[in-house]
Structures are given as C-alpha cells and as structure tokens.
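Quarterly update from the structural biology core.
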Amino acid sequence: MNDDELHPIRIIVADRGHVWVCRCPDPTGAVFWLTVTHARTIGNWGTTKGLGELYDGPTSSTQLHAIVPEKIIPVRAIIDTFIVREDKWANHLSLPSDGRKKRSNSSKASALD
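Predicted structure, tokenized:
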C-alpha cells in the first residue's frame, strides 16, 4: 500500500461548480493548498436524492471525467467535503501501474517520452 492509499476517498465540492472524488487527507489542517490524488471530476452526479447519494458509490447515471494523478486545490475554494465508501469507489480511482493513461500501440511517440 502506498501513501496515497492511506488517505480516505472523499467527495470535495468547491466554488464555481467543481465537484471531485479523490483520495484526500483531512482538509481541516490545510492552510492555503490541499494536495489530493487519484482525482476525478464528477461531471454529472446522476442522483435523484442529492450529492449525498454518492456516498454509496456512483450511480449508473454518474459521469466521471478522466483521472488526474495529483491535483492541488486552493483551500479557500472548498465549500464541502465528505468521506465516501472505500469499497464502492476504489475501483473508479485506480491509476495505470505507471501513473499515466496507457496509449494504444498505434499511437505515435510523443516528444515527452
């Protein structure tokens, strides 16, 4: 288990309509910036009973954007956060083994490789 997996999975609601599900340390100790890992924007909650319904995992209508290995969020932007069920969300936050999205074999090599 790496250090990232020690942090619980939380949903973070921020200003300007941003909502993420990610691994996150306790945000109460953060002063200016909060570093989260395995972050995915929740593009559409897909709920009928509000955001809290996602405590038990995404619904069949929930839309999750691509995973970001590490994200830094300004603490001043955070409106709400709550821990969700690890067993229902962990598979949705898995990274490829090298931490990047896998390319198909037909892709051209980029200048960053």
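The CA atoms of residues 31 and 93 lie 26 Å apart.
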